[in-house]
Amino acid sequence: MSWLVNSNYIFIISGLFSALITVKVFPFVKNIGLKFKVIDDPDPRKMHSKPTVRLGGLTLIISFVFTVSLIYFFINDQNFIDKHIDIILLSAAISFVIGMLDDIFTVPYFFRLIGQIIVSIMIWQNGINITFIDLSFLPFLSNNYFYLNDSFSLIINILWFCGVINSINWIDGLDGLAAGISLIICFGLAFISIANGNLSIALLSIILAGSCLGFLKNNFYPAKIMMGDGGSYFLGTNIALLSFLAVAKSDGQINLFIPFTLLIVPILDMTYVIISRIQNKLSPFYPDRRHLHHRLINYGFSYKKTVCIIYLLNFIAVSLSIRMNS
Q1: Contacting residues for 188 by C-beta, under 8 A, at least 6 apart
Q2: Are 207 and 18 in contact (CB under 8 A)?
Q3: Which residues contact 151 (CB under 8 A, 6 or more apart)?
Q4: C-beta of residue 34 within 8 angstroms of C-beta of residue 51
Q5: Mind listing the pLDDT tens digit for each residue in 256-295?
Q6: CA proximity to 52, closest of 112, 103, 100
Q7: What is the pTM of this model?
């Protein structure tokens, strides 16, 4: 296996293998969803017209964990093995379970948010946190680096992880939208990680991108399966973690502007919806049709054109983040 470790083939093989596993486990997962009636029924707010299995997140976590485990088993090179892999897999798995429980039993949002906060704290306690904020991209500041004490560091961790998890979850309103956006973001993370010499995070990003690519085969319009909250929570947690680790320096400094730009499309969509709901004296978590994809469809764009427009916006944002990192 030395030829694999000493070449770029590891990225290609791991990504394609992850995509293949996602496709292969689809029939098994779909049958489970049908057997236990984990079905998303149409309603006036949703865009699909027929009942669809919403257990697709299970295909994502199976392909990701299996591929990571297999690659790590064959590779004995610390350049490709991230020291945070245990907490990455654990936190993503817990987030998946929280979301899957909602897919099956409809868990109140308050309890899901509590679970997300607990996961964020757990990640912070395991050393994935911000010690300094790098604002060197703002030339008018005399002090470009700001030290954060533990309290502020924890608050930023909670805001970031809960925000990213829910932004991915909330933009999952059209077939193929969340998976496609996550795919583009993961490729961006891989480029940024490679540029920063962090091959382990690049590898994890490529494997996650492969999972998303394979999932799109059965999730693009018209979808045969939906990722559900389990899938979007799993993707959101991984993306939030990898975006931190891709730009983090050894002393804890993080240029927050890079991961924020990388995720600006889902983040701004979520922010707009929250502000709009509050202005209309509604709960920030009130389900409605205020999201970007809903508004584009209301403007007359077709289903597929709406998804492609948001893909393009996301691609531009990811390209800008890569440029900022260079």
Answers
A1: 262, 318, 319, 321, 322
A2: yes
A3: none
A4: no
A5: 889 999 999 999 999 999 999 999 988 888 888 899 999 9
A6: 103
A7: 0.94
